[in-house]
């Protein structure tokens, strides 16, 4: 923060009501400006931009936008837990699965009873959030008593346990084959030729914006400050009157709820769930994504979500572009995504420890400084 | 003007332009466009295959054969003047990847139809999508009865005998050859295993013991131990090749001597022998079923024709049951494409299969009709003797309902010139 920014505020003590609607100058928010309002405006702007973008895109690209949004729900909550609160979880893929299966069972149940209506999807997603938050509470209670590698171990067990449950209770979860439910279709008033993928992108976008909005406010709230205090020094936080264990459990519940929503949306995109979609790999990919994106910042979560989707298509892209000997191509297709992810992780950690977001911020800061120097 | 304000204004103007350009008419335009994947010179089709992962042993060679057959057809001028472009995508037998690659094929690559998407758990996951997109989904490489639901999934068709048909015939054979034996069932923990068990129990009544495996878990020891403990004398197995090899290897390791009677999908001798390596002697006496010519039968005219194509376009791979499967299915597809006619549409292709009447290498007729979307109607038993898998006994046909298991006396047709169908 520069010295000019802390100069006394020249505004009158009671600003006009309209003034409050505008986003304040950067850094001026906090006690005076409304953080919520600023984030709302940002969210609406971002939402409008993406909606306009989806109008231009072909179906498959819209689906990719939808996937990014679904993953963004997860990475946003996850980065709050890992980056801000300092708790490591390797079980977020399993929490996604919890949300996804809740949505699938709800949607299937309604379909079998021939219940129809636009309210079914929001209700299913809401229930997915509630159920996953409950699961997060249970894991969080254990997590608050554990540190570092022990916590990683427990959450790792969760990551492998949840897919196993689906094959044990085959009657409910239908084993590895998973559950199917009717595809979400665009509402009739949008016209007969409305692209279904665009509708899916909108649904996912709404979920992602909601998550980002809530997380952005949470990060800047009193709770967000406690999260950071606990991460940095538990003893100091306790001395400052923060209930450390409660704070950690709450962080777990919040990030689990986000993962549940993301998982639910992810299920809606394909109208199916199967344990193979939520393997241990996914949990590891999620962690790598937020680390590469930039740990603890919501912008980093966006980078992470984009990366997760981009890498899904990488193997087929490479094998299509280059004609490789069939044996090599086959070996690549299976392992390429993991290898590339690992490689990016190493490079980013060496070159930009703050992740992609940190690197981008450093770059803009340097450009701005150069321009300022040129102006003088 | 302040630079920031100018930038905001520029951005707003840009957005306004975007809105203007995005007249929603482009959707209608797309809908009214020509048939996806079809031009005057080409027809593009796609598939999802396990080129890696637990089902890759053996199955990864099916698409190689299919591709080789299309190359052969293309070299003779294609079908109705159109060359077949066959896009193969790897899904690693993981439903999450199947979702992704099938959407890419249909939405991005704009394939005309899907052909032979492989696997019960994988393909089940794309049924809703395929239905919504009205894509012809021909000849799914799996014997699940899911593909035979014309009311629910009007564009999806099976090809091989379904697992219930197979289960009924295997059980009938076991009843005749091993009267009074304790019969057990070992199956994959999805529709593959379940449909097979339904067929077996229709004929035999409840089996003495049943165990399942999941493809993500290589530990089949406990399941095999349970079958041994139950005193099983015959094990009817609905397993993919990797797990047939694992299960029989475990059984041999545990000193569990039962007669294994294995579904055709997991019983190709060449594939199993390669999996088991120097332990392949345990395959001696293995009983299985099949409905296509045996890959090791050089006297069969179809095998002769396919071998010729194989040597030219696919010589790097062995000609085994998987290759014969790939060739035979591709042959049926070319028949369907021919029947659909010169003015190709998705509706016409679906209609062509519903009309049925296809011939080819298979030992029994297809069941396709206006309200049946199931493929081959029966199988014939085979046995491994001295490291050679060969047919014995009669060919049987039945349906997936309560129809009886009947002996079938018809003979397969001879292949046409170049093994390319003419009608």
TrEMBL record, chain A:
Membrane-protein topology: Multi-pass membrane protein
Q: Which superkingdom heads the taxonomic lineage of this protein's source?
A: Bacteria
Ranges of compositional bias, category Low complexity: 16-27
Q: Does the keyword Transferase apply?
A: no
Region Disordered: start-end pairs: 1-27
UniProt KW keywords: Cell membrane, Membrane, Transmembrane, Transmembrane helix
Keyword Cell membrane recorded = yes
Where it sits in the cell: the answer is: Cell membrane
Main localization is membrane
User: What InterPro entries does the annotation carry?
Assistant: ABC_transp_permease, LivM-like
Task: From the record, give the transmembrane residue ranges.
Answer: 36-53, 65-84, 119-144, 150-173, 199-219, 249-272, 284-311, 336-363
Q: Name one GO cellular component term.
A: plasma membrane
GO terms for MF: branched-chain amino acid transmembrane transporter activity
Matching entries from PANTHER family are given as: HIGH-AFFINITY BRANCHED-CHAIN AMINO ACID TRANSPORT PROTEIN BRAE, HIGH-AFFINITY BRANCHED-CHAIN AMINO ACID TRANSPORT SYSTEM PERMEASE
Entry protein name: Branched-chain amino acid transport system permease protein
Automatic annotation (TrEMBL), chain B:
What this protein is called in its record is ABC-type branched-subunit amino acid transport system substrate-binding protein
SUPFAM superfamilies in the cross-refs: Periplasmic binding protein-like I
Family classification: Belongs to the leucine-binding protein family.
- Identify the residues that the record assigns to the Leucine-binding protein domain, covering every copy: 43-380
Which UniProt keyword terms apply here? Signal
Cross-referenced Gene3D superfamilies, in alphabetical order?
Answer: 3.40.50.2300
Annotated signal peptide: 1-25
Question: What InterPro entries is this protein classified in?
Answer: Leu-bd (IPR028081), Peripla_BP_I (IPR028082)
Q: Which organism is it from?
A: Micromonospora kangleipakensis
Region called Disordered, residue ranges? 395-423
């Amino acid at each position: 923060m520069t010295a000019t920014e802390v100069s006394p505020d020249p505004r009158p003590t009671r600003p006009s009501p309209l003034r409050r609607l505008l986003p304040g100058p950067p850094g001026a928010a906090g006690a005076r400006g409304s953080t919520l309002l600023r984030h709302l405006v940002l969210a609406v702007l971002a939402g409008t931009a993406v909606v306009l973008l989806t109008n231009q895109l072909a179906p498959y690209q819209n689906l990719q936008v939808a996937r990014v949004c679904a993953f963004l729900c997860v990475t946003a909550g996850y980065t709050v837990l890992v980056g801000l609160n300092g708790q490591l979880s390797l079980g977020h893929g399993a929490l996604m699965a919890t949300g996804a299966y809740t949505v699938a069972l709800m949607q299937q149940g309604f379909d079998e009873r021939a219940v129809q209506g636009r309210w079914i999807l929001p209700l299913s997603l809401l229930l997915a959030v509630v159920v996953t938050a409950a699961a997060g509470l249970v894991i969080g209670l254990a997590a608050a008593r554990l540190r570092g590698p022990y916590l990683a171990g427990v959450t790792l067990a969760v990551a492998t346990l949840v897919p196993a449950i689906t094959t044990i209770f085959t009657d409910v979860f239908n084993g590895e084959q998973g559950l199917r439910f009717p595809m979400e279709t665009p509402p009739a008033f949008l016209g007969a030729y409305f692209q279904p993928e665009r509708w899916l992108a909108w649904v996912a976008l709404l979920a992602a914006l909601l998550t980002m909005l809530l997380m952005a406010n949470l990060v800047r709230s009193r709770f967000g400050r406690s999260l950071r205090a606990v991460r940095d020094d538990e003893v100091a936080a306790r001395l400052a009157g923060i209930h450390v264990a409660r704070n950690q459990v709450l962080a777990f519940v919040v990030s689990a709820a986000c993962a549940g929503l993301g998982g639910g949306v992810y299920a809606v995109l394909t109208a199916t769930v199967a344990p193979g979609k939520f393997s241990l790999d996914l949990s590891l990919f999620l962690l790598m994504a937020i680390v590469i994106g930039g740990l603890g910042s919501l912008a980093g979560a966006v980078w992470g979500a984009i990366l997760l989707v981009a890498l899904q298509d990488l193997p087929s892209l490479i094998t299509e572009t280059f004609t490789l000997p069939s044996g090599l191509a086959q070996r690549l297709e299976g392992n390429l995504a993991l290898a590339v992810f690992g490689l990016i992780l190493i490079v980013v950690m060496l070159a930009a420890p703050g992740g992609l977001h940190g690197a981008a911020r450093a770059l803009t800061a340097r450009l701005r400084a150069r321009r300022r120097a040129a102006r003088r | 003007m302040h630079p920031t304000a100018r930038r905001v204004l520029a951005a707003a103007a840009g957005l306004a332009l975007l809105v203007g350009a995005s007249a929603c008419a482009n959707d209608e335009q797309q809908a009214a466009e020509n048939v996806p994947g079809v031009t005057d010179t080409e027809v593009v089709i796609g598939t999802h295959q396990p080129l890696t992962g637990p089902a890759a042993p053996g199955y990864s060679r099916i698409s190689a054969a299919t591709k080789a057959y299309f190359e052969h057809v293309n070299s003779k001028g294609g079908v109705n003047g159109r060359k077949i472009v066959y896009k193969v995508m790897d899904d690693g037998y993981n439903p999450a990847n199947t979702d992704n690659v099938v959407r890419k094929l249909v939405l991005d690559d704009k394939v005309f139809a899907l052909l032979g998407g492989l696997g019960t758990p994988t393909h089940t996951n794309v049924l809703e999508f395929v239905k919504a997109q009205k894509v012809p989904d021909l000849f799914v490489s799996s014997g699940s009865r899911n593909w035979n639901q014309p009311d629910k999934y009007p564009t999806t068709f099976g090809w091989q005998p379904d697992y219930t048909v197979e289960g009924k015939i295997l059980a009938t054979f076991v009843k005749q050859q091993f009267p009074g034996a304790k019969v057990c069932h070992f199956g994959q923990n999805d529709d593959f295993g379940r449909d097979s068990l339904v067929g077996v129990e229709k004929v035999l009544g409840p089996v003495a013991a049943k165990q399942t495996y999941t493809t993500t878990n290589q530990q089949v020891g406990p399941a095999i131990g349970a079958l041994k403990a139950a005193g099983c004398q015959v094990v009817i197995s609905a397993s993919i090749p990797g797990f047939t090899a694992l299960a029989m290897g475990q059984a041999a390791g545990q000193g569990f001597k039962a007669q294994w009677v294995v579904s055709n999908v997991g019983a190709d001798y060449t594939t199993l022998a390669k999996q088991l390596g120097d332990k392949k002697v345990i395959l001696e006496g293995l009983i299985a079923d099949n409905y296509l010519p045996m890959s090791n039968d050089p006297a069969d005219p179809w095998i002769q024709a396919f071998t010729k194509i194989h040597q030219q376009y696919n010589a790097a791979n062995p000609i085994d049951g998987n290759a014969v499967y790939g060739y035979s299915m591709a042959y049926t597809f070319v028949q369907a494409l021919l029947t659909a006619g010169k003015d190709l549409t998705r509706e016409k292709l679906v209609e062509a299969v519903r009309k049925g009447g296809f011939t080819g290498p298979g030992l029994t007729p297809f069941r396709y009709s206006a309200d049946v979307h199931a493929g081959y109607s029966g199988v014939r038993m085979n046995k491994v003797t001295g490291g050679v898998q060969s047919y014995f006994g009669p060919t049987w046909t039945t349906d997936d309902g309560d129809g009886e298991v009947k002996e079938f006396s018809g003979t397969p047709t001879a292949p046409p010139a170049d093994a390319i169908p003419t009608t």
